[in-house]
Amino acid sequence: MPSRFNALARAVAILLMVWLALSLLVNLPSDSAAFLGPLHWALALEVGAILAMLALGQAWAGYVPRIALHVLSGSVILLFVIRAADLTAQTMVGRPLNLFLDLALVPAAAHVAAVMLGPAYVIPAAAGGALMIAALHLVLVHLFAYLVRGFRQVAMRQAFAGISGIVLALTAVQGLAPADIIAWRPISGAASLIVVEQAGRLSSTLARQAAFRADLANDPTLQINDAALFSSLSGTDVMVIFIESYGVSALDNERYSATVRPRLWAFGERLAKAGLSVSSGRLLAATAGGQSWLNHATLSAGRWIDDQTLYALFLTELPRTLVHDFRRAGWRTAQVMPAITLPWPEGHKLGYDATYVAADMNYRGPNFYWGVVPDQFALDFFARRELEVPDRPPIFAMLALISSHAPWLPVPDVVGWEKLGDGTIYARWADSAPEPREVWRNTEAVRDQYALSIGHSIDAVAAFLADRIPADALVLVLGDHQPAPVIAGPGASRAVPVHVVAHDPGLLRPFDRLGFVPGVLPPPPPAGDGRLVRIDALRAFLLAAFSAGTDQGKRGGEVRSPRQVGVGAMPR
Known about the structure:
Elements: H1 2-26, E1 43-44, H2 45-61, H3 66-93, H4 99-102, H5 106-117, H6 119-150, H7 154-176, E2 187-188, H8 193-215, E3 238-243, H9 249-252, H10 254-273, E4 277-284, H11 292-301, H12 308-317, H13 322-328, E5 332-337, E6 354-357, H14 375-387, E7 395-400, H15 427-432, H16 436-439, H17 443-467, E8 474-479, H18 485-488, E9 495-502, E10 517-518, H19 537-546
Parallel strand pairs: 1-2, 3-7, 3-8, 5-6, 5-7
Antiparallel strand pairs: 4-9, 4-10, 8-9
Helix pairs in contact: 1-2, 1-7, 2-6, 2-7, 3-6, 5-6, 8-12, 10-17, 14-17
């Protein structure tokens, strides 16, 4: 009898350890804060189903084919990989995984990692990850084969039957108990739901594509004649300057505001000395944590472009944008993209008269990791190439600065314009900066660097506005998106600060209708992002506010929140 009891106890221990270990793999949470938390330790019904198939195969046929073991192992690994990818998406860009969209972004993510950490680290890490998956697969196949042999023993079959009965009973009890009474549930059947969720997101994505394509026929400029288009801005240079990763967390989160707000106050003081007025507000960006180009396109097109498939549709259909609006009204148009270092054929589809990428700027200084060309150098290039040209037409320009991109170092000083030269001056900061992999071992150090880099970009833009823009310019300075959740924090707003700058205060008054207020600080945040104006409203707003004969209370001037628009509803 003791030997029989010992055999049964040993079988129970083995099955529980296997069940729990595999459950930890397939129950990987989407929130890093929940890693190894109570919900992570729940026994997964999906693992129980795999064990049941092994037991039944042994009982009915006396064996389980080797190919079946490989399939079951692959199923566990597939769930683990999808859940790990979901955790990564939530951590890096603050949204759930969408395989249909995100698989296309893997090369871009690999490129970012290679630039930040270097191929010498990224390639071995990728190879190591592949080897770990292969090793896990072999371990699982051998584990399942071991269990099949174990199910030949009466004790193992009895142990599994008993455990299964208890698990099913607990599952039934859980189903009857309200969630607010039992916070932790020892049994989970949610591991495989992520596959169902991915199928649902595919269906939703396809539906949004169809709605987006249908909406392209609606264009607010069709009701405005050429003579009226931007007539209130006649002869005015209009610039949109994106500051990389400049989200409202930089101003609202005390962790960063202690560094960033003083730079913003200095920004305002320098503008005031130059005779410039400024109003500030908050707008809701289409993305968080990355994919800046989606927010560039969203603002320009006046359409909510929050995923790569909609962006691909945008490039295919090429609807009218602010670029076309200003060209039609007689402005020269240019885009300045200092982060672009590879061939960029889609850039020439956007309709600008001139497109400037990193190679065009004659920068000979050190590589600032992801931000190849520092912000001040890019702004100086634009001023010399486009603004300080005699007898030119007014210009509409979009500039996407990059110095405040992760890894947020080196952080240079703003220097006198005459000292920039060919950029070799930046070697002093590049040579003294730590390696990203050293800084990124410490989350607090990373956060420090984020605040410092945002402060530098604000300083560079302040110098540009105070020293280099014409007296009749209208400039919008805004963030392209919030930083990743590791910086902004879980559940952070997706809003970005927007500062509108001009010598003529009259050019700023229309922005009052967007909730903007005088000064460099936006108004306090509203109760939830649903009450914010989105950046896709800017195109229609600008057309209505600065074109003669438009009804600002109707389509062109209507300010829409995310919950008022079907196609642009915030993704779940």
